[in-house]
Amino acid sequence: MSDENQQFEQTLLETMAGDKEFVAKIRAVRQFAYDAFDKLDGDKNGYLDREELIGALVSDKTSHADREFISFLLNNQEQIASAYEEGDPTNTRQGISRAALDSYFRIILNLF
Ligand SMILES: [Ca+2]
Q1: What residues pair up with 48 in beta bridges, in sequence order?
Q2: For range 78-107, the mean pLDDT
Q3: pLDDT value at position 1?
Q4: Domain span including residue 52
Q5: How far is ligand 1, taken at its centre, from the CA of residue 84, in Å?
Q6: What is the number of structural domains in the chain?
Q7: Is the pTM for the entire model greater than 0.90?
Q8: How far is the CA of 89 from the centre of ligand 1 (A)?
Q9: Cα-to-centroid distance, 106 and ligand 1 (Å)
């Protein structure tokens, strides 16, 4: 095997390892979002809006690990919210619904 091929294989392996970690992280975020949904949804309207997520992010009660998950949700809020609109485009403005979480993570995890 040439050096170039070896190099290519090495890069490919590293990329795949990176994907595995990424998938594990995405799964962890999904689990967190499902488990913490009711707690995060302060006004119990069925949507996680920006204020609720930011409130949880800055709360002393939120662990470091959970902050990372919440940051992910905040950074991807619009994408997640628009993954499932229930036929009503105003839903994306209300925040993330459970149905949107379902659709979003199904789409993301199908890519791997
Ligand atoms: Ca809410």
Answers
A1: 96
A2: 80
A3: 54
A4: 3-110
A5: 16
A6: 1
A7: no
A8: 17
A9: 22
Alpha-helix runs per DSSP H in 1-112: 3-40, 50-58, 64-75, 77-81, 91-94, 98-110
In the numeric block, which tokens belong to residue 61? Answer: 């009660």
- Spatial distance between the Cα atoms of 85 and 20, rounded to a whole number of angstroms: 29
> Is the Cβ–Cβ distance between 80 and 73 less than 8 Å?
yes
Residue 44 Cα to ligand 1 middle (Å): 5
Helix (H, G, I), strand (E, B) or coil at 97: strand
CB-side neighbour CA atoms (13 Å) of 64: 0
Q: Measured between alpha carbons, how far apart are the two ends of the chain, in Å? A: 28
Cα–Cα distance, 27 to 34 (Å, whole number): 11
Q: How far is the CA of 43 from the centre of ligand 1 (A)?
A: 5
- Pull the structure tokens for residue 95: 């925040």
Residue type at 31 in one-letter notation? Q
pLDDT tens across 52-85, in order? 999 999 999 999 999 999 999 999 998 898 887 6
